[in-house]
Write a structure and sequence with these properties.
The complex is a heterodimer of chains A (361) and B (346). By secondary structure, chain A is mainly α. Chain A has a domain of 214 residues: MetI-like fold (Orthogonal Bundle), CATH 1.10.3720. Chain A is built from 15 helices and 2 strands. A two-stranded antiparallel ribbon of chain A has the order 1-2. In chain A, strand 1 and strand 2 form a beta hairpin. In chain A, helix 5 runs parallel beside helix 15 and helix 11 runs antiparallel to helix 12. The longest helix of chain A has 37 residues. Chain A is flat. By secondary structure, chain B is of the alpha/beta class. Chain B has a domain of 184 residues: Rossmann fold, CATH 3.40.50.300. In chain B, the strands form 2 sheets. Chain B has an 8-stranded mixed β-sheet with strand order 7-8-9-3-10-11-13-12, with helices on both faces. In chain B, strands 2-1-4-5-6 form a 5-stranded antiparallel β-sheet. In chain B, a hairpin with a 2-residue loop joins strand 1 and strand 2. The longest helix of chain B has 18 residues. The two termini of chain B are 35 Å apart. The chains are: A mainly alpha (361), B alpha/beta (346). At the A-B interface, helix 11 and helix 12 of A face helix 3 of B.
Chain lengths: 361, 346
């Protein structure tokens, strides 16, 4: 085929420079080529979109990694480490009095002697021991467990109560909403620290005989009263938020459409309204966890937290306060772990918000 | 044969919304004393400017809002009756204490009737749940009314509905935001058709679409009507569209019906001054005729429905208004052939 010549484009002409092309460039597309063009974009859901955005956020991904590592240590470490958080280190069945206040990775005299005699190697005290001769690493691990559990349980409780309360108030609106929100206002205006302290004093007396002998006793009355306080006080923020979301969503025509179909109120809430405010719910729950952990640490620090000998990061920090100048590591370690957990949850919450909040997109 | 029975009958429908002004609540009369009837397979067009209560009529009719007063009859069953009775002049009969006499009010459970009366919404963007696939959106009415025995039957029904409205089967697993406005409206129509209704309220179903898509959707409404024998209450503010699709047209102004007539009759021989001005505002797609035609421009604004003028609601802007208009509300009177007009002077 004779190559067709296109004249060169004139200088400063705004026409396309045709000399770069030849006739074959202008042939009609074959059917196969046409088909290549109608590759349909993969059906992308709101959730998948959000996950993709989350994966691209390095801070959020780093905090997920940190949290996974912390949780893995909290779960696995007690199975590997031979020491217990509540017993003083013993060597060959004898209490090791020389094992108090050891530095990280140090062994006591008895332990060194035992290792020399038997030739076996003992598990090292990664963070040393405390003033009573207990392994500090395992205590920090248990403290992390407690703090994480408080954070997650409290957040879930807040979520459940807030979600139910907020969605009822928001969906039914009118007088129901008015009354329910005034109750929220009253609870909101209570000073929470005062209530926590008062409640734990009152509950201490009523709960102690009740939980004796059950698994809850190990958790301690203070811990349970803390959960009760979270359940009583901290849901209000969540309830307000969810109510606001629902007020917004229920005015969408798809809710009216569902009504015109004959969908029941419960089903409308379940299938249309709550899924549509799920992103906000996930984000707020993620941000609720660090605030619960903070409160728990604070309460433990002032001595209202978990019962001895169980420990939490806050009470570890409190115990270490006395010997802050001599053994600063004992204060630094729990403080760093608290900061890591809180920071990771906060960054993750922010990442979730960036990824899922439709208003930011 | 005697005249065909009405499928839908609405009489003295009132829908007030409480609006708080300071300390006390004032009723906003969105719909005030509206009566009409629709026969099986018929299309009644409802026109009027924005905010005149067209949409509210549609929603109250389906009892998506609880009507303040009135009576709604569907297929011989009374769905709602506030129980007031009226004399020949259309005034409420009062009891000794001066309160409306209430007899046997009715409030039927709407669930069984949701299968027979459906609605297509104005905004195809907000009327579909963004988190649901097309299959679930169309399947929802089937789920609610338990209209299938197993998953396969559900899917089969959904696919046949999608075919009816001109969607491809491969669209079933997609989300609403992946479709164009026209396609979304088709999904909305398929959802309304899923329960096999006899009557559909079409609430401005085409006003959010562009003109070429409007034509497609309107034609589809007509085809569906022929095929399935549906009756429509077709709400719109575009007179041309309404004239094209409707058998009869009702004109609303500020919550009141001004005129009802056959579509052609209303177009050729409008009587009410408001209808005249509405018709004169319809754009004419021919510059020559448009230049020669005379447009009636109404003075002033629509009064607030919170401060409804006494008597005829249109009198504040009407060129023919007399003292009588300020005293009494003109009732709808028959001017022959079912052409009903609410005006004293025309």
């Amino acid at each position: 085929m004779a190559e067709e010549k296109y004249s060169k484009r004139a200088f400063l002409s705004s026409q396309i420079d045709l000399s770069k092309f030849n006739a074959s460039d202008f042939e009609k597309a074959s059917d196969e080529e046409k088909r290549q063009q109608d590759v349909m974009g993969e059906s992308s859901t709101f959730f998948r979109d959000g996950m993709r955005k989350l994966r691209r956020n390095p801070l959020a991904m780093a905090s997920i990694v940190v949290l996974i590592i912390l949780i893995a240590i909290a779960v696995i470490a007690p199975h590997i480490c031979p020491y217990s958080y509540q017993t003083i280190i013993t060597v060959n069945g004898r209490r090791d009095k020389s094992a108090t206040n050891l530095g990280p990775m140090e062994y006591s005299q008895l332990e060194t002697q035992y290792m020399e005699d038997s030739g076996k190697k003992l598990f090292p005290h990664l963070f040393g021991t405390d003033s009573m001769g207990r392994d500090y690493f395992i205590r920090v691990v248990y403290g992390t467990r407690v703090s994480l559990m408080v954070g997650i349980v409290a957040a879930v409780m807040v979520l459940i109560i807030g979600l139910i309360y907020g969605s009822i108030a928001g969906y039914f609106g009118g007088t129901v909403d008015l009354i329910m929100m005034r109750i929220v206002d009253v609870i909101y205006s209570l000073p929470d620290m005062l209530i926590i302290i008062l409640l734990s004093v009152v509950l201490q007396q009523t709960l102690t005989p009740l939980i004796q002998g059950t698994g809850l006793a190990k958790l301690g009355v203070n811990m349970i009263s803390m959960f009760i306080v979270f359940a009583l006080l901290y849901w209000v923020g969540m309830a307000r938020l969810i109510r606001g979301q629902i007020l917004q969503i229920k005015n969408n025509e798809y809710v009216l459409a569902a009504k015109s179909i004959g969908t029941s109120n419960g089903r409308i809430l379940r299938t249309h309204i709550i899924p549509n405010c799920l992103s906000i719910i996930i984000i707020t729950t993620a941000l609720q966890i660090p605030s619960a952990i903070f409160t728990e640490s604070f309460l433990s620090f002032i001595g209202l937290g978990v019962n001895i000998p169980l420990t939490s990061l806050g009470s570890l920090a409190n115990d270490a306060r006395g010997a802050m100048q001599t053994y600063p590591l004992r204060l630094v370690i729990p403080a760093v772990v608290i900061s890591l957990i809180v920071l990771a949850f906060n960054l993750l919450g922010d990442g979730l918000r960036d990824a899922f909040d439709t208003k930011l997109n | 044969m005697a005249e065909e029975k009405n499928l839908v009958e609405v009489s003295h429908l009132k829908q007030y919304f409480p609006v708080s002004s300071g300390f006390h609540k004032v009723p906003l009369k969105a719909v005030d004393d509206v009566s009409f009837a629709i026969k099986p397979g018929e299309t009644l067009g409802l026109v009027g400017e924005s905010g005149c209560g067209k949409t509210t009529v549609g929603r109250s009719l389906l009892r998506l809002y609880e009507p303040t007063a009135g009576r709604i009859v569907f297929d011989g069953d009374v769905l709602f009756d506030s129980g007031e009775s009226y004399d020949e002049k259309g005034n409420v009969i009062l009891d000794e204490k001066g309160k409306p006499l209430i007899k046997n009010p009715v409030k039927k459970n709407m669930l069984p009737y949701r299968k027979k009366m459906q609605m297509v919404f104005q905004d195809p963007y907000s009327s579909l749940d963004p988190l649901m696939t097309v299959e679930d959106i169309i399947g929802e009415p089937l789920d609610v009314h338990h209209l299938y025995k197993n998953k396969a039957e559900r899917r089969e029904k959904i696919l046949s509905l999608m075919e009816t409205v001109g969607l491809n089967a491969e669209h079933a697993m997609r989300y609403a935001h992946e479709f164009s406005g026209g396609q979304r409206q088709r999904i909305g129509i398929a959802r309304a058709l899923a329960v096999n209704p006899k009557f559909i309220v079409c609430d401005e179903p085409v006003s959010a679409l562009d003109v070429s898509i409007q034509a497609q959707v309107i034609n589809m409404f007509e085809e569906l009507q022929d095929k399935l024998g549906l009756a429509y209450l077709f709400i719109a503010h575009d007179l041309l569209v309404v004239h094209h699709i409707s058998d009869r047209i009702a004109v609303m102004y500020l919550g009141h019906l001004m005129e009802i007539a056959d579509a052609d009759e209303l177009n050729d021989n409008p009587i009410h001054p408001y209808t005249l001005s509405l018709l004169s505002a319809v754009p004419i797609p021919d510059p020559k005729t448009a230049r020669e035609s005379h447009r009636i421009v109404l003075e002033g604004d629509v009064p607030s429905p919170l401060k409804m003028p006494k008597g005829c609601p249109f009198r504040t802007r009407c060129a023919y208004a007399t003292e009588e208009c300020a005293m009494h509300r003109p009732p709808l009177t028959d001017r022959g052939n079912g052409h009903m007009v609410a005006c004293f002077n025309k």
